[in-house]
From TrEMBL:
Name of the protein in question: 1-deoxy-D-xylulose-5-phosphate synthase
Involved pathway(s): Metabolic intermediate biosynthesis; 1-deoxy-D-xylulose 5-phosphate biosynthesis; 1-deoxy-D-xylulose 5-phosphate from D-glyceraldehyde 3-phosphate and pyruvate: step 1/1
Gene Ontology process terms (BP): isopentenyl diphosphate biosynthetic process, methylerythritol 4-phosphate pathway; terpenoid biosynthetic process; thiamine biosynthetic process
Transketolase-like pyrimidine-binding domain location: 319-484
Amino acid sequence: MTTNRGLTAIRRPADLRGLGTEELTSLAAEIRGFLIKAVSRTGGHLGPNLGVVELTIALHRVFDSPRDTVIWDTGHQAYVHKLLTGRHDGWDRLKKTGGLSGYPSRAESEHDHVESSHASSSLSWADGVARANELAGRDRHVVAVIGDGALTGGMAWEALNNIAAGSDRNVVVVVNDNGRSYSPTIGGLADRLASLRLQPGYERILEAGKRTVQGTPVVGPALYAGLHAIKAGVKDAVSPQELFGDLGLKYFGPVDGHDIAQVESAMRRAKRFGGPVIVHAVTRKGNGYPPAENDDAEQMHSPAAFDPATGEPTGTPSTGWTDIFAEEVVELGSRRSDVVAITAAMLGPTGLAPFAAAFPDRLIDVGIAEQHALTTAAGLSRAGMHPVVALYSTFLNRGFDQLLMDVGLHSERLTLMLDRSGVTGSDGPSHNGMWDLSLLGIVPGMRVAAPRDEETLREEFREAVAVTDGPTALRYPKGAVVSSVPAVRRLDGPAGVDVLHEPSDRRAQVLMVCVGAFGTLGVAAAERLTDQGIDVTVVDPRWVLPVPRELLTLAADHQLLVTVSDCGTHGGFGSALSDALRASDIDVRQRDLALPQEYLEHGSRDDVLARTGLTVQDVARRVTEWAAASAPTVPELDAHRAVRGS
């Protein structure tokens, strides 16, 4: 009989297989304590991981990782997996520079096959890996753990349809059914899973007081209606075995996801079956930690640093960009009955919870379905409403076709609020919102604003929702909002370009165009440059796309044009401005300071900006170098101004 070795002795999944029942129970408790302590210091996805402790232990006792491929959907549920695959260090810097990633990371471990941080993709990955195994003659299993709302994404159902066709492929789909993403999972598909819970096995789980959940879908009403006749009056007539059998999928469950023996038994049966199998495990998000269990809104989904004894935040709360939007959209809703707000399973994080409380009939949560969100918004617009669609910038990528062909092509009037634009930092390469301007700039008729502070966020939001002939978007970063970065003056023109800094005679060599929240950085850099004898005009374009005409006119009056933005170098603001200048036959030396066209590793926002040269010191240094290389004599500068008509 093995001795109780504890977590420190678990360096690979095989180390779990000799443990007895008591040791496994003790290990699960130790893992929970470890995660609560670690995440309380750094912040991170606590609730989802507390919900998969026993499930992950059982999985790694049954399957042979990394020979068997394990894919997590979404990857923020993989903390326990990291511990059981030997990653005991780096938790003091979780999601920070030099620490562990908050998601699976191929750079960290051979056990991480897919860096799955956007939801609903795991089943497509699993289908592809299983097909490759079949073609190569490899007798291996692919396990996709999908939950935390990921089954509300349409891509998962496209993949499930294909997985079912491969009757000889060893794909095990573990449905981690906690009924949540950030908030309760919604929709008709969720209702169908709730009906499957009427099975006696689930009733026993309920009677044991293990959970209260609302449901992540297993199959939609329309699909079931096409496969089965209605058996009126019989509650338990729904047979998951028959249902998934008709699809070509074997079904085991539901099982108590916090009972290692139950989950392990179901997984062993699934492994022996040979072919695609569903294992339905019912879990509770935040399980075993009362502050998370009692957090009805989010089950401590992704808290910042907190007191582990109470679950209360330890940091000083600050007003964020999201908070300002939350106030403005409620005020707008009170004035305009045509305003409808849409979220994709991110009600709280995008600031729409107050709107939902005030106007519940005008709040639509589509689940993890950005494509559907955008076309639904187009339909609302077509029928006379003004949708406000609040998304994280990185998730706009998922709905680009709908943005281009449903919203843009039809010139629908709606407003996109793109939270977490630019560098988000801690969630790593998949979550930086650095692609939005490149995508939005492709859409004809799209107008994009980038507020620099609280005042301009309020102002530009009001301007955006007043537009009646096409779509608008606002992009703003993660974190605390600056209350005010005052303008020296506003240029005449429809965009209202703001001058934030200029010499008293308005005869500067350098024009620095700072997008959005970089206005603060630009002013600070200009003050340093002034001390060095370099005169700089700093402007905030406010409406960055299409490029304001008044900005082009101003650029023509300077020797050096520098853009500072938190988007990619290809197709970003600098590219758009360069194209506009060229189209207007304006010749000015331009240099762009932006994010490199690469996937940026995780770290704090400040760390990532420092690594990419977007700090006050770096901007001032680069401008000094460029200005020295192009500085004209005084007569040359006067001649230049005469040619430009100044």
